[in-house]
Amino acid sequence: MQKGLYKYILLIQRWFGGAGFSFADDPVTETLSQAIRGTGEELDREPDTGVLFGSLRGSVVGLRYYTGVVNKGEMVSLVRQPQNPYDRNAVMVANVYGSQVGHIKRELAVLLANIMDNNLARVEGVVPFGVTNQFTMSVVLSFWGREENRDAVVRQITSRSFKLQSGPTGTHTHTHTLTQLKNAFDNLFENLMDDKIGEREAVEAVCTPLLPHQKQALSWMCACENNAALPHFWEVKGELFYNTLTHSSVRERPRRVRGGILADDMGLGKTLTTIALILSNFHHGKPLCEPVISTSRKGKTAFACNTSSGKSLVSPVEAASSQSTDDPAARATLIICPLSVLSNWLDQLDQHVRADVKLNVYLYYGSERNRDTHFLSSQHMVLTTYNVLSADYSVSGGASPLHTVRWLRVVLDEGHIIRNPNTQQSKAVLKLNTQRRWILTGTPIQNNLRDLWMLVAFLRLKPFDVREWWNRVIQRPVTQGDKTGLQNLQALVKCVTLRRTKTSRVCGRPLVSLPERSVRIEEVELTQKEREEYELARTEGRTTISRYVAEGTVLRNYADVLAILVRLRQFCCHPGLLGKTTTHTAVTPAELRERLIMKLRLVLGTGSDEECAVCLDSVRLPVITHCAHVYCRPCIAEVIRSEQEQARCPLCRGQIKASELVEFPLEEEEEEESNLLENWRSSSKVEALMSSLLRLRSEDDSIRSLVVSQFTRFLTILEIPLREEGFKFVRLDGTMSQKRRAQVIQEFQSDAPGSPLIMLLSLKAGGVGINLSAASRVFLMDPAWNPAAEDQCVDRCHRLGQKRDVVITKFIVKGSVEENMVKIQRQKQDLVEKAFGTKNPSERKTSRVDEIRALMEL
DNA sequence: ACCGCCGGGTGCC
DNA sequence: ACCGCCGGGTGCC
Q: Last residue of some domain: A500, A519, A547?
């Protein structure tokens, strides 16, 4: 619900470090932002937060037994070795590349073991001087942790007569102001285009001509795959290779990341460019399929694709320029994508690859999929989904067919899907064996700098694929406002990312010229009867909520509040959305809980876009806690796993247990659908839509429309008048099978006579990526909490291939909760701007409770 | 290690 | 001398 607002607050707090400034100096204690801030450290077991307790000087011993190299100023990691046969308190010291350097001296190791094993603090090491002898060296240890553990840590240290120096060891002298930081982040993914990037034509096997920006992308991608030069941040220093970010050295020549992040806005042709890459850049920069002149029919070219390794002719020059580590047996490209875009890949292959090119493309999907690894390895392309990959992975314990094949290239489509490293999908993706790695995404960072880590880890951008170094070199310095940290981040992003937006320009010209898009809000007046019903529900809801506000228990009764708000929103659309309202009065706690869970089921079942307070994304695999808050199962499971018996609900701080989580089945009800259709009545909003559609048809019956609602039931209701008026329509919602979706999209996109004019679309159906460019009108039937969700939906038709101006109509019921939602939406959009623009912190305080009060006009 | 620590040799000034 | 001191042997955890 109001989460969007908090998303921004959290975003700001996380990007810029929550400690520095506070939003809610609000007398109401139970605001969500405070609740989350309160639990933040616990939720956040990631080590980029926490305070510095102090540091002390110690020594590393046993250097002569190990090979790890450390330079002056280099960071080292401390690894507990409880199994060490000589000392169960042993603490091993390793350099950035994981090579052992030595051990912490015994007496100090006792202390560290104690602190580390009891999770009292994180301990980080920096070597202050160069190594002067072969036996020992100094190390500065700093202790980071939660404020509540400070005393315990200090006590441990002083009781063993070590001296804790206060204050930071690495002094951050150059810090940004918040405004500077914000600008830097906004620009993080901008201006990545290197002017040096040329253009490259696709091979002939690609029959669609590439646009200039696509040729640039192809050129860049080929260069990323083929370039054997020393990666960024590395310098040759005598015998060693020296990393300028971590000040570390390695003996072995570091390998360049062969791949990167193609982060173009959606609609700029990432799929086409990737297809062009696959066909154009096989081994040694040679095309995958080469034209051969047929001798029988002169002049006609056919294409022979490389199907066995080592047979392509390679000139010595090209062979030398390519990396010697090339594995000639790795030949296939694996594409992993969300189910919703699987068919898009097949369509685009059909569309962009010449018909006389015989590509072996295998769809690794469905229960009958061929799991033979030789078969898979011999394909040119294998397409699969994240779900199939992770399902296989967990079943096989890591030795799935896809994990056995040595791939030439792995492409993660909608790669931001793996931004949470705790998911099975992400773990499965990291374990793939491949030479080249690509991430395609329109949104490289969604909420948080942390989102980037998993992408960096997938690319194996050393040494940042190890969390500790990412955190120490990038994450923490940046969140603390360190200037060099930010510069490093920018440099790092720049060396692996290409991003252009729809507004980017190539040689002064826009990348693509999209038709105009305009938004108009159509106010809907309720009939007197509807108004009476609405006011009744509103008054009732207000009474309940104002009681919660007065008691300060809004968040404790979150499910109840949500249910009331959803009900009002449903009233605005159509009374038939409400479903049965069970208003029995619960008395026992068990009954009360059951009731809350029922209400949440009601809320989620309508397709309302709820947000998980842990990952800040839309809930996936929703589960409901005992205290009636909704999270993604993997997110909350991780909280419980790491906090064990002390686990608290991130929203209300109530105790939570894994055994008490209630699964939420997404496929739901619809059992009284017939009932809905039999007792049909219209509503003001339905009438408003119908009159728009009828007018449109009479003016121009070639214009196609998307009719979008968050409530799938509303779509069902709308089918009735559409049929009555003889509109041909299709429907696309989250419950449909992949096959059916593809059919529906194809039918809608087809310009064949008699193809549908209207698509009923559930707001979240299919996620991103689908192409509905046949439509140029969008009717948003109900306001969404997340303006971005609406934008994404509109982007499905306002994209490459759109020939007409796009007109968006938002229906908003006058004098209703919807109107207030729109107001809050606007505030949200301004919030970040305002937060940085104003000097007075009291002006920017907004609380969840305030928001609910605004909604209910309390 | 140009250290600390150990343990054997040694012992007035 | 149940000490101090000397100087050789020795060395991560």
A: A500
Q: How confident is the model at residue A780 (pLDDT cuts 50, 70, 90)?
A: very high
Among A119-123, A190-194, A662-666, the least confident range: A190-194
Domain for residue A28, yes or no?
no
Domain boundaries, position A493: 212-230+258-307+327-500
Residues A370 and A430 placed together within one structural domain of the fold: yes
CATH label of the domain that carries residue A689:
3.40.50.300
Instruction: Let me know: does A793 contact A761? Beta carbons within 8 Å.
Output: yes
Residue A635 has pLDDT above 60, yes or no: yes
Footprint of strand B on the protein (CB under 7 A): A 61, 132-133, 135-136
Domain total of chain A: 4
pLDDT band of residue A301 (cuts 50, 70, 90) is low
pLDDT digits (tens, 9 = 90+) for A338-366: 887 898 899 899 999 999 888 999 999 98
C-alpha to C-alpha distance for A668 and A713, rounded to whole angstroms: 11
The protein footprint on chain C, as nucleotides within 7 A of a CB, is 12-13
Provide the 3-class DSSP secondary structure of residue A124: strand
* CA A108 / C1′ B3 distance in Å: 18
Cα–chain center distance at A779:
27
Identify any residues that bridge with A334 across adjacent strands, giving them in sequence order: A382, A410
Query: What is the rounded distance in angstroms from the CA atom of residue A335 to the CA atom of residue A384?
Result: 6
Residues, chain A? 858
Q: What is the CATH number of the domain that holds A154?
A: 3.30.70.2330
Which amino acid would we find at residue A127?
V
User: Which nucleotide has its C1' atom closest to residue A63's CA?
Assistant: C12
Indicate if A549 and A687 belong to the same structural domain.
no
pLDDT at A260 over 70: yes
Give the confidence band of A858 by pLDDT, cuts at 50, 70, 90.
Answer: confident
Contact between A777 and A696 under an 8 Å Cβ cutoff? The reply is yes
**Distance between the alpha carbon (CA) of A97 and the C1' atom of C10, Å:** 32
